[in-house]
Amino acid sequence: MTPPPGEVLRVLAAARITHVAGIPDNTSAPLFDALADHPAIHLVTVSREGEAFALASGVWLGGGRPLVVVQNTGLLESGDALRGTAVRMGVPLPVLITGRGYARLAAAGVDPRAPPEGELLRRPDVDSVALLTEPTLDAWGIPWTRCDDGTQAPARLAGTVRMARTQETPVALILTAPPT
Questions:
Q1: For residues 17 and 41, what is the distance between their CA atoms, to the nearest angstrom?
Q2: DSSP string for residues in 25-72
Q3: pLDDT for 71-95, tens place per residue?
Q4: Sequence-ordered list of residues with C-beta below 8 angstroms from that of 69, at least 6 positions apart, any chain
Q5: What is the pTM of this model?
Q6: Domain 6-100+129-175: which CATH class?
């Protein structure tokens, strides 16, 4: 069970996030549920992850302070919207990525930094999205950090927001464990 997202909400409010755009998954669903009734942060669910990046870029153009929340599978789907819109425009966009597949990598004894090639991508005990997430962010020039300890998620998210705003670019936090 995913713990309540209270600390994450406090981080978002303190950072004056105005909009959260994305699609909920098992890990992020409690955050989306909590945001549904939030008095200051507008939740915008989209039908495809690429829409979240385009929408967040538009919110930023309008003076808002958006955050995108997607699963790593959806991140891969949204590459052109992220690259061609948010990166190209220099949108200071924090991106919270829930990391599907990292637990399976650990159970299989595979380091997430292993080169994503050949047999490893075809192994039935490995979810290849976890192998592809970090190299994809690197290829797109997106600074990122991974948080494997849910207790550190709020502080790491605050750092991600600060970095995105300082560097005026999308910056990602990959959560492999639910926030506590």
A1: 6
A2: -TTTHHHHHHHTT-SS-EEEE-SSHHHHHHHHHHHHHTT--EEEEEEH
A3: 999 999 999 999 999 999 999 999 9
A4: 20, 21, 22, 23, 24, 28, 31, 32, 52, 95, 96, 97, 98
A5: 0.95
A6: alpha beta
